[in-house]
Amino acid sequence: MKESLKPGIKYEHKFKVLPSKTVPALYPESEEFVAMPEVFATGYLVGLLEWACIKAINPHLDWPKEQTVGTHIDVSHEAATPPGLEVKATVELIAVEGKKLTFAVAAHDGVDLISKGRHERFVVSREKFDARLGEKSGA
């Protein structure tokens, strides 16, 4: 981690919602999901917020040797977003406690605030992470 990894880092990430990022596409194996409205899926929203946090801090890490993994997410999903709208994710690093990073996150679709909350990530050594994963999978 570089000395520049400090609270106050902000980032905005924009993403146009495609039909492939809607509820029916989230788990096409699920007939219940397939029958639901074609709106931005909460699962993809969470991924977008994580992506924005990663983009915000990568310049402050020894990327790709150091990476971050999501460890906690606490966000609302307050409004439906149809395909074609652009969602802007806004994130701010609000706390650094050793390797634990906490972000305030929000997303807006140009019409409504669609999400707000907090997200935690943990800085890991990619080499050590892969080694532990290999042990877990029996490789």
Automatic annotation (TrEMBL):
EC number, as in UniProt: 3.1.2.29
Asked whether the UniProt record includes Methyltransferase among its keywords, one would answer no
Tell me the domain of life. Answer: Bacteria
Record's keyword terms, sorted: Hydrolase
Q: Which residues bind CoA?
A: 70
User: Which residue range or ranges hold the Fluoroacetyl-CoA-specific thioesterase-like domain?
Assistant: 34-127
Q: Which Gene3D superfamilies match?
A: Hotdog Thioesterase
Which GO terms label this protein's molecular function in UniProt?
hydrolase activity
Q: Which residues form the active site?
A: 42, 50, 77
Q: Which InterPro entries match?
A: FlK, FlK-like_dom, HotDog_dom_sf
Q: Where does substrate bind?
A: 70, 121
State the signal peptide span: none
What is this protein's record name? Fluoroacetyl-CoA thioesterase
Q: Name its species.
A: Candidatus Accumulibacter adjunctus
